[in-house]
Specification:
Number of domains: 1
Number of strands: 11
CATH topology: Rieske Iron-sulfur Protein
Distance between the termini: 16 Å
Strand order of the largest sheet: 1-2-11-10
CATH class: Mainly Beta
Helix content: under 10%
Bound molecules: FE2/S2 (inorganic) cluster
Oligomer: single chain
Number of helices: 0
Shape: globular
Largest sheet: 4 strands, antiparallel
């Protein structure tokens, strides 16, 4: 996807694409990322279960708890932590909403000399 960037923040979606309780799957630089909205706030997590790699595009989403559809591991979308063993965690990405859009602060990209 083509991203517009500002100070390291990438515009990844329009606000209206992520309703309350909704989720939106993205792939950015080969990283699978899931946006979610709860209590009005947007969250962004790695969309790749640390158990066996399923995505969270389906699976229960209640409160801040997101459950993997494959074997029911449940994670807190605010911290990425697995509820039974918090040392296992999904990566989370800073996410904010501004100018009618959702923005992610992505890890630094490695620049390729030839683009
Ligand atoms: S792949 Fe997610 S719980 Fe097994």
């Amino acid at each position: 996807m083509t991203l517009s960037m500002a100070n390291g923040w990438a515009r990844v979606a329009a606000s209206g694409e992520l309703p309350e309780g909704g989720r939106l799957a993205l792939t950015i630089d080969g990283q699978r990322i899931l946006l979610l909205r709860r209590e009005g706030a947007p969250y962004a997590i790695e969309n790749d279960c640390p158990h066996l790699g399923c995505t969270f595009t389906r699976g229960a989403f209640e409160g801040y708890a997101l459950t993997c559809p494959c074997h029911d591991w449940t994670f807190d979308i605010r911290t990425g932590a697995f509820d039974l063993a918090p040392e296992i965690a999904l990566r989370t990405y800073p996410c904010r909403e501004q100018q009618g859009a959702l923005w992610l602060l992505l890890p630094e990209r490695k620049e390729h000399p030839h683009g």
